[in-house]
From TrEMBL, chain B:
<dbReference type="InterPro" id="IPR050770">
    <property type="entry name" value="Intradiol_RC_Dioxygenase"/>
</dbReference>
<keyword id="KW-0223">Dioxygenase</keyword>
<dbReference type="GO" id="GO:0008199">
    <property type="term" value="F:ferric iron binding"/>
</dbReference>
<dbReference type="Pfam" id="PF00775">
    <property type="entry name" value="Dioxygenase_C"/>
</dbReference>
<keyword id="KW-0560">Oxidoreductase</keyword>
<dbReference type="InterPro" id="IPR012785">
    <property type="entry name" value="Protocat_dOase_b"/>
</dbReference>
<dbReference type="InterPro" id="IPR000627">
    <property type="entry name" value="Intradiol_dOase_C"/>
</dbReference>
<comment type="similarity">
    <text>Belongs to the intradiol ring-cleavage dioxygenase family.</text>
</comment>
<protein>
    <submittedName>
        <fullName>Protocatechuate 3,4-dioxygenase subunit beta</fullName>
    </submittedName>
</protein>
<feature type="region of interest" description="Disordered">
    <location>
        <begin position="1"/>
        <end position="71"/>
    </location>
</feature>
<feature type="compositionally biased region" description="Basic and acidic residues">
    <location>
        <begin position="1"/>
        <end position="10"/>
    </location>
</feature>
<feature type="domain" description="Intradiol ring-cleavage dioxygenases">
    <location>
        <begin position="108"/>
        <end position="136"/>
    </location>
</feature>
<dbReference type="GO" id="GO:0019619">
    <property type="term" value="P:3,4-dihydroxybenzoate catabolic process"/>
</dbReference>
<dbReference type="GO" id="GO:0018578">
    <property type="term" value="F:protocatechuate 3,4-dioxygenase activity"/>
</dbReference>
<dbReference type="InterPro" id="IPR015889">
    <property type="entry name" value="Intradiol_dOase_core"/>
</dbReference>
Amino acid sequence: MTPPLTPAAPAPNSTPAQTVGPFHGHALPFADGGAPAPSGHPRTVTVHGTVLDGAGAPVPHALLEFWQTGPDGSAPAVPGSLRRDGLGFTGFARVTTGRDGHYLLRTLPPGGAPYLAVCLFARGLPHHLFTRLYFTLPTHDPLLAALPADRRPTLLATPDPGHHRAYRFDIRLQGDRETVFLDFTEPPSRPDAGHGDV
Amino acid sequence: MASESVREQTGRAAPGLQGTDRDGSRDSAPGRAAPENPAAPGISAAPGTPPYTGDPLRLPRRPLVPVAPGPEAVELTGPVFGPADVDPLDADLTRQHPGDPLGERITVAGRILDRRGRPVRGQLVELWQANAAGRYANRLDQRSAPLDPNFTGAGRCLTDDEGRYHFTTIRPGAYPWPGRHNAWRPAHLHFSFFGTAFTQRLVTQMYFPGDPLLPYDSIWHSAGDEATRARLVAAYDPALSVSGSSLGYRWDVVLDGPAATWAEEGR
Ligand SMILES: [Fe+2]
């Protein structure tokens, strides 16, 4: 059994977050932001879903960002995260939900740990929300091990039988199947963790 | 930590007076002033200023799950940006159209540091804002204030080796928050920051010193206590002003969240 994890104290001078508001659509999206997979790559997977509020209504104009490893399992370290060259894989995607709360992502399967890091921004959220999208639920994952069994499926993308190499991943902000949202704390074993904080 | 604000609100998103935002949804607005921190005098909420606690149907009800990311966690790294991503002209919002935009020209600059005080180098900073009349060049903003054909209000830049960023733009106008009586947003710039780790991601708003609307603004007050929300107010800095052209404002930013030191040294 994993012991309880204690959230880290905030950095004393950290700048607080504020809501993204409703008017980011002319500024933050970029060309092919939802298509980090190189064009025509045979291993491309489609991930799509809907962001839903506590009444089950879609959340329009939300901003979703995804960050992931490449198929070789390492974090991409090549620049060009905003400007697709059609060849390389930078691991970063940004999409907005439509009026129906739906988003769509075309990416490559992550190597190593089988998940995408997800960050959600929306009007009405004073602070962004982190979660993860798993393609499979590995047995030795520290986060999953710390979760009650009934909450793990909220992080699992499910195969979409109607489409080739497609997965469905809905994000529920509230309710019985509320998505697990994450608070990242200081990693425990970094050489300089906990020292020299400003 | 900034995520405290979410955690505090979890489970007590009680219904109250509700305003309608411009995309037709709700925001909670209980009709009482936010409690102030008596130990930190400064700009207090004006009587009757309701705190902004977010949309009661959008705030998660369950506590955030703490994660101490191990070395394998992808969140300890983040996307990499370079000269191909950002044109130098993207940092001057007054030169994106053939003519000059209306409004008071300003320079906004500062440094981005991580929680240990190290500069955040070569990372993306994004800025978006209303025009001088308080109108966004965004189809969701249907307010009856004029659009400026010479102003879009979106900019990008990369931080330099000292973590510095720099924008030239115009001071945005205040705008009313629909659905609420005389709730005007103070002049503000929306900013987005990336650190070297995805955990450091930050979206926030910058305000101007001496703005008489600040004591009445629910969103600014939602940032935290006096000392915390003071970090969202820029300082007038004559050293950044461009003689005969723009007024200078300095605003430094500290990104929270763990980062992998090994990844930072190489960037
Ligand atoms: Fe705004």
